[in-house]
# Entry
Amino acid sequence: MAVVSSEHTILVIEDNAADADLVIDALSGVPSAPVLIVASGGREALEILRGPANGALPAVVLLDLNLPGFSGLQTLAELKGDPALRRVPVVVLTTSKSQNEVDRCYELGAAAVLNKPLRLREYREMLRAFERFWLGHVRLPERT
# Structure
C-alpha cells in the first residue's frame, strides 16, 4: 500500500483485523476524515514508511502495543531510532495495565499511551478524540 502525503494521514499498525476495522469505521465517520493506512505489523509498517513513497510521512502513527513477532515496543524503538522517521508522533494503544510497559513506551519516545476501552462505544469515542486532538489541535512537525 502506498503512503499518501497528507497532513491528515494516520498510519494504523494493528494486527487484529476487527480492531483495525473498528479504527477505520470510527475515523471514517468524522467530518474531516483522515486518510488511513493500515499495516498488520511493525515490519510491514516500516516497509511502508521506508518504501518508494519515502518522505511522504503520516501525520501520526497509531501503534498497537501487543503485536506478534516484531512487537509494538520493537516497532516503536525502530521508528524512533530512524532519523528519517523519529519526528513522526507515535501514539500507542494498549489493553495492558502494566506501568512498566507504559514507562518503556515513553522511554522509547511515544507521544502518548492510550488504554483501549473495553466497551465499543467508549473505544470509538476515544478514537475520535484522538483524531480531533492530533489532527485538529496539535501543531505537528514540518514535513521535510
